[in-house]
Design goal:
Elements lengths: L1 E5 L8 H16 L3 E4 L5 H12 L3 E7 H5 L9 E5 L2 H10 L3 E4 L4 H15 L7 E4 L6 H12 L5 H4 L2 E4 L2 H8 L1
Parallel strand pairs: 1-2, 1-5, 2-3, 3-4, 5-6, 6-7
Length: about 180
């Protein structure tokens, strides 16, 4: 199974987030899943990919050419898919994946998650997405989605398109 993971490339994130990324990667590798991710060699992206490799899994990096040319691609990638820009990168990741997991991240991660959910809401794909709610990281966003639902901006059926689990193992089990 191709599992797309959205996460941070920042080297400034707390060690706890890197630990969870590495743990998720290890579990993906041990379960013989392929990782599809943004291809970065820093932050949670790097920890995630290292975990996959340690678990014996395959890493598919999807990265814009300009980033690859700057040396930002995870060196242990089994496959590198270069794209023209960030939008094509996101679409390539969606098309090439069976399920999605969101780890804590910043604006890029939020963009990936919300674009994915919008596409699902529009019936452009029917692949599940689960957030790993590390120490309640996603609770404010999930509360905002509830507020959108309460205000009539988001139908309940669309609010239910996003799952959250407290651990990497729980998220993977939910998506299996």
């Amino acid at each position: 199974m191709n599992v797309c993971v959205y996460c941070s490339s920042s080297d400034r994130v707390a060690p706890r987030y890197l630990e969870v990324a590495r743990e998720l990667g290890q579990l993906l590798g041990e379960r013989k899943n392929n990782l599809v991710f943004g291809g970065g060699n820093t932050g949670s992206m790097n920890a995630l990919a290292e975990g996959v490799k340690a678990g014996g899994g395959r890493v598919i990096a999807v990265i814009p050419t300009w980033m690859h040319e700057k040396g930002l691609t995870f060196e242990g990638s089994d496959e590198i898919v270069q794209t023209d820009d960030m939008q094509i990168r996101r679409m390539t990741m969606i098309k090439g994946s069976d399920v999605f997991i969101g780890l804590p991240g910043g604006l890029g991660t939020l963009e990936e998650i919300t674009e994915n959910l919008t596409m699902r809401q529009l019936d452009l794909h029917d692949k599940p997405l689960c957030l790993v709610d590390v120490d309640g990281f996603w609770k404010p966003m999930l509360a905002f989605f509830d507020q959108l639902n309460d205000g009539g901006f988001l139908l309940g059926e669309h609010r239910d398109l996003i799952y959250s689990e407290p651990t990497a193992a729980d998220a993977l089990n939910r998506l299996d």
